[in-house]
Amino acid sequence: MSELSKRIKQRREELNLSQDELARKLGYKSRSSINKIESGDNDVPQSKIEAFAKALEMSPSELMGWSEERMQYLRENRNTVIIQRLLGFMGCKIEMKWSELEGNFIEPAGYTVEYNKASFDITTEEFTELINSIKSYISFKIHELSETKLSKQESDNLNNDKTNEEV
């Protein structure tokens, strides 16, 4: 069961809501969806985070378990978060692990990677190297595409100029 699943169940119980009541608040047809989310069988769709937070009378950040330090880190590392999401679309889930001091999330303490039905941990340095490699490759491919497209445009313009001169 994920931490998010635990927080949803705990908060629902704190508010004395049944799974049926929470399901109705969220527009689900039955409690089975809530049951599957709380048991960890299903993930909460990203599109439903805000609705869950509202139904559970908390902020999306609180629902996700994000401290102000963690939110600041995520704001400062927006490009990294975007690449993590891109990798998620490709079937590679990377979750940040946080070091904890007196109950507050302070800094990244590594990452857990889930890929091809395997799960393993990598260090922050290995993750940074992966992200930099991905950024470098994307930059290279965009440069390569722009060079190809610009070269083709120049060629097309030359051909158009020659055609116009002949007319």
Q: What does the model show?
A:
There is one protein chain. This protein is 62% helix and 16% strand. The chain has 167 residues and is of the alpha+beta class. The protein is built from eight helices and three strands; from the N terminus they run αααααααβββα. A three-stranded antiparallel β-sheet has the order 1-2-3. It folds into two domains: 3-64, 434 Repressor (Amino-terminal Domain), CATH 1.10.260.40; 68-166, no CATH class. The N and C termini lie far apart (73 Å). The radius of gyration is 24 Å and the shape is elongated. α2 packs across α3 (32-39). 8% of the residues are buried.
- Shape call: elongated
Unreliable runs, pLDDT <50, ≥5 residues?
none
In total, the number of strands is 3
Distance between the termini: 73 Å
User: What is the number of domains?
Assistant: 2
Structural class: alpha+beta
Helical amount among residues, as a percent range? 55-70%
Please write the string of helix (H) and strand (E) elements: HHHHHHHEEEH
Strand content: 15-25%
For the CA atoms, what is the radius of gyration? 24 Å
Order of strands, widest sheet: 1-2-3
Main sheet characteristics:
3 strands, antiparallel
Identify the quaternary structure here. single chain
The number of helical elements comes to 8
Domain HTH cro/C1-type: 8-63
GO molecular function: DNA binding
Organism: Sedimentibacter hydroxybenzoicus DSM 7310
Pfam families: HTH_3
